[in-house]
Amino acid sequence: MDGPLTRRGLLRGSVLFVAGAAVAACGGDPLAKTKSTPAGGAPKITLNHWYHEYGEEGTQQAAMRYAADFTKANPDIAVKVSWIPGDYATKWTAAVLTADGPDVYEVNDVSPNMVKAGQVTPLDEVLGAEKSDFDPKVLAPYTWGGQVYAVPMIIDPMLLFYRKSLFQKAGVAVPGSFAELVAAAKKLTAGKQKGLFAGNDGVGALNTMVPWSNGNLLIDDRKIIYDDPKVVEALAGLKELYDAKTTLQGYSTDWWDPGALINGAAAMQWVGLWAVPGMTEALGDDFDAFPLPAFGPGGRPVVNMGGWVQVVNGKSRNLDAAKRYVRWLWVENTAAQTDWSLAYGFHVPPRVSAAAKADKLTSGPAKTVMDAVAAHGVKQPALWTAEVRQPYTDAVTAIVKKGADPEKTLAEAAKRSQDILDKVPVL
């Protein structure tokens, strides 16, 4: 769910739930009385809950069911579920500029700018005593000034998957270092088969993951640290991988879809846990996973922990009701959380206790992933926002693809990133 998954003809628009009844809400007054409205009149409050358009079948219906169940338990609060297609980030960003935006919505990141603008509100009371049942690593990027501004909905681990039969045929072992990964990719590249698929540009998430695996997270609190010999070294390794023409490029789908691995276009692929059911259906037990190996002696293996979180609009006219709803659904209701994570797609429930009880995560490649997350999971630093990292992304492209001088290019980019970061408010 963390990437732009394949879309299937899901329903558009929104649905309002009032005291157990679903009312199509494509326009007009959502509180208008209908034959389905209870005798006592419409609920006193209507919450608007925005979701991005998930790709897995059944997710929209599940979101509607959760809203209906909440309204049954809380008949004074109706919930209007809005399924937002297209460029969700642009749409929610515009919508929350005013009090007419969604009361509850989902995001990947929470920035200080969002906090300062009142687009989110503290949710410590929503997490309550159950806060200790959430991985601190997962909560950390959403914590500002000692307050937590989001409740995790799903965790999406991303790492390397591989075809066991192709490894066996080529006499390749699971790589234990980045140098071994490069050697394996070269050996596994034959004919139309490439050794590795990380993205259609030939680099993908490895632009950040490889430096992470060499012990540099690119940013340390409010200081840009990627102008560093460790990053230069990591990007030299990434350039070697790229120049060897071992990475698949220009495939019909991008890294988030496991098609390249399934179809044998690549022997290894950077992809997320969400792809496991599709790979299992297509490949049986002919695949497994491993973290991105440590780059060098001072590095570490890396599993990237993505995901979606729930926030409450600080401008909402119904803050208390919105918090009540979020707590009911994303903190207390572990059955719904497990259903949301594992009944339609394949993700990790964010509450540690719920994940531990999820049978689907206790065997095969899923267990490999869960073990790797426990040992090597890394969450993107909160201030590594799209704006801050853009100069770095441009620098990596210049270094890896165009042969630009790495020290000079990173130094210049780091100054631009730092200038942008310095403008982010301090909380």
What is the β-strand count?
Answer: 15
Strand content: 15-25%
* Overall 3D form: globular
Chain oligomer state: single chain
Helix content: 25-40%
Span of the ends, CA to CA: 30 Å
* Uncertain ranges: 1-12, 23-39
- The tally of helices reads 17
Q: Mean pLDDT, nearest integer?
A: 91
**Largest sheet descriptor:** 11 strands, mixed
Structural class: alpha/beta
Using only C-alpha atoms, the radius of gyration works out to 23 Å
Signal peptide: 1-24
Organism: Nonomuraea bangladeshensis
Keywords: Signal
Pfam families: SBP_bac_1
Sum up the structure in keywords.
427 residues; alpha/beta; 11-stranded mixed β-sheet; two-stranded antiparallel ribbon; 17 helices; 38% helix; 18% strand; disordered N terminus; signal; TAT_signal; SBP; Sugar ABC transporter substrate-binding protein
How would you describe the overall organization of this protein?
It comes from Nonomuraea bangladeshensis. This is Sugar ABC transporter substrate-binding protein. Keywords: Signal. By secondary structure, the protein is α/β, with parallel strands linked by helices. The protein has helices spanning about 60-75, 90-95, 110-115, 125, 135-140, 165-170, 180-190, 205-215, 230-245, 260, 275-285, 320-330, 335-340, 350-355, 365-375, 385-400, 405-420; strands at about 15-20, 20-25, 45-50, 75-85, 105, 145, 145-150, 150-160, 195, 220, 225, 265-270, 290, 305-310, 375-380. Strands 1, 2, 3, 4, 5, 8, 9, 12, 13, 14 and 15 form an eleven-stranded mixed beta sheet that branches. A hairpin with a 2-residue loop joins strand 1 and strand 2 (about 20-25). Helix 9 (about 230-245) packs across helix 16. The longest helix is centred in the last third of the chain and has 17 residues, at about 385-400. It is globular and about 65 Å long.
